[in-house]
Every structure is written in structure tokens, then in C-alpha cells.
């Protein structure tokens, strides 16, 4: 995982907000509203407050998401007066990659500098006609999982709705994107107030027009927030980072388990309203000698057998200073075979061969699950 560091030598942007204020809809300096923080109903409300008709909101929304307008001047079917009014009260934020690294296998890692000098990454995994983009939801993460590089940095701040959506918009200028997975930096369910509007914009027919079947949210197991996600966005896909099959081990490697232990987490999975024949994805990071035995596989099967699921085995991606080791090939194969033989849908991705995956940490290895057909 990337470090939530500062970028140097950035060009001036619309404004440079104070970090503590970056969750707001407004630029803290100019007081203008960033329209990319608004869902279509919120934009309708914003324009209604300015005395404008409802259809104006749809027009502006389409300009932003379907025509990628970055200024009001481009909105040629809107009167000059309204454009000037919008200009005075609002702005349209944008992200440009500071750097793009391309791996030998075509994976592209985008580094984005944010208004306040922080940075985040998105990773594009190309696949003919089915490109998947892995996006970040926070700078850093508060969850402190022992095996995760992001977790060692703690949380710097939540990304705004606009910053989440802008990662997609920036990459979409290069390639078409079919799937979105929220498996980048951060815990999306720890930032639901900004993640839910961002997903609404992604799946809005006047917005980014992505199918809700192609959006996956990954969580370490915030049970009450899983329930809220299911209530507010019942059609998105859920991925849960299980990573351990006993409370004893999970308590140790994922501190969130002390608050929501396995029983509670699995109940939240069971109750998550997935439509049709869709399945919950259980991500399982294999830590050499820690959770990679057949006993673990057996327990994994037992714990999850009453939840429609598929399993994504992720060999641990080592990073400097970490206490864990990657599992052996033999351990991965035996674990995989144990589950396959018992009719579990499993995929294993060994990302160690990729030249840029070392830097992007865990991002790459987990994306195959999201690309698998879910029905
Ligand atoms: N916070 C969310 C989403 C981001 S982390 C979550 O935890 O689900 C996405 C995935 O990366 C998780 O499944 C996590 O278990 C995995 N992961 C974290 N560090 C890793 C590492 N060093 N190697 C392999 N996978 C890792
Ligand atoms: Fe945060 Fe997910 Fe990393 Fe845990 S695995 S520290 S929840 S990003």
C-alpha cells in the first residue's frame, strides 16, 4: 500500500483547504460548493436554493459526469446568466495524476495529489472490455491491521465524495472502466458519509452510469456500517476481509475484531441484502505459518458455509519492517485445493510476479474476485 505522504512541488489548485475541513462540501477558503460532492438530488436541492428549476440540475450533472466538463463555460445549453451565477457559488473539482506507473502486465498505478498536499493511489487492472479500477476511500486508515502497510500509518483524513469520484473520472479519460472496487487505501465503511454519495454518483444513470453489480465495497468488518450500507445501497457487492478463522488470531491481526468478533461479523454478512444469486466475497490474506494451514481452511469452510460466498485468497505481500511472511506455494495450493474440492468458488492471485505490485502492496492481488461474475 502506498504511504499517505505529502507530494512536493504541486501546481496551485482551486484552493488548499485545511485538512480538518476537507470533509465539507465547501472550499473552506472561497466558501464555494464543489459540485462533485453532490448527488443528483443534492444538486437539485442546491439549485433550488438558488431558485432554479429541477431540470437544470440534471443538465449540470450530465455536463459534469457525461461530458467531463471542468468549467461552467463549457455548459453551452445553459444560459450565460446561470453560468455566471454558478461560477460565483460553486466550482467543479478535478484530479490529474501526478504520476502513472505501468507494470509489465499492463496494471497501471495512478498517484493523485490532493488539494491539501496529501496523496492517494488508484490501480487499474486491465482486462479486455472489463477493466477494473481499485480506488481509495481515505488517506491512511484507522483500523491498524497488523499485516497492512496502510494500517501502520493511521488515519490522516477521509476522502471527500468528490475525491473518490474524481479518481474514477481521471482514469476514465485514459480507458473505459467497467468495475469499481473500493479496496485501495482506507476503510470505506469508516467513511460512509462520503462513500455512499460517491456510489450514488457512480451508479446514477445521469452520472457515471456504472452498473451497481459492478461496484464492490470491501470492509474489515464494521458490522453496524455493513448494515447501513445494505440499507442504503442494497445492490452493491460486499467484500469482507476475513483473514482469520478464530477470534484469538483475528483479535491479534485485526483490532476491529475486538469490537465486532467473528460471530457478529458473520451475522452481518448473513443479513446483508444481496440480490439474486450474488455472493459475498471473503478476502483471505494468507500469512505464512500464521493462518495458512488446512485446519484454517477447514474452519473457514465451516464459518462461511451458510453464507452464499466466494473466497479470494491473497498471498501476503511483504513490505519492509513487517512481521509476517508470504505463504509457500505449497501452502497456497493446498488451501485452495481444499476449498475447491468442497465446491467453494475460490480464486488465488499471486501478485508477487508483478513489477509494480510490490509498491502498491495489496491492491493488485485482490481484484480478480471483483471481476468474477457474481451471478
Ligand atoms: N479496508 C478495507 C479495504 C482496503 S484493504 C478492507 O480491509 O477490506 C483491502 C484488502 O487488502 C483487504 O482484504 C486486506 O486484508 C488486504 N491486505 C492488506 N494488507 C495486505 C498485504 N500486505 N498483502 C496482501 N493483502 C493485504
Ligand atoms: Fe485499513 Fe483495510 Fe488495511 Fe485493515 S486492511 S488497516 S482496514 S486498509
- Name the strands of the widest sheet in spatial order: 3-4-5-6-9-10-11-12-13-14
- Gyration radius (Cα, Å) is 21 Å
DSSP helical segment count = 13
- What molecules are bound to this protein? S-adenosyl-L-homocysteine, iron/sulfur cluster
Q: How would you describe this structure to a colleague?
A:
With 375 residues, the chain is an alpha/beta fold. The chain is 32% helix and 17% strand. It has helices at residues 40-49, 54-65, 80-89, 161-172, 192-203, 223-232, 247-253, 256-259, 262-271, 294-304, 329-341, 357-360, 367-371; strands at residues 33-34, 90-91, 97-102, 108-113, 119-125, 132-134, 138-140, 155-158, 179-182, 215-219, 237-241, 280-286, 309-315, 345-348. The strands form 3 sheets. The chain has a 10-stranded mixed sheet. Helix 4 (161-172) packs parallel to helix 5 (192-203), helix 6 (223-232) runs parallel beside helix 9 (262-271) and helix 10 (294-304) packs parallel to helix 11. Iron/sulfur cluster is lined by residues 141, 143-145, 148, 150-151, 186-187, 220, 241.
List the topology elements.
Elements: E1 33-34, H1 40-49, H2 54-65, H3 80-89, E2 90-91, E3 97-102, E4 108-113, E5 119-125, E6 132-134, E7 138-140, E8 155-158, H4 161-172, E9 179-182, H5 192-203, E10 215-219, H6 223-232, E11 237-241, H7 247-253, H8 256-259, H9 262-271, E12 280-286, H10 294-304, E13 309-315, H11 329-341, E14 345-348, H12 357-360, H13 367-371
Residues 147-148, 183, 187, 218-220, 241, 243, 283, 285, 314, 316-317, 361-362, 365-366 line the site of S-adenosyl-L-homocysteine.
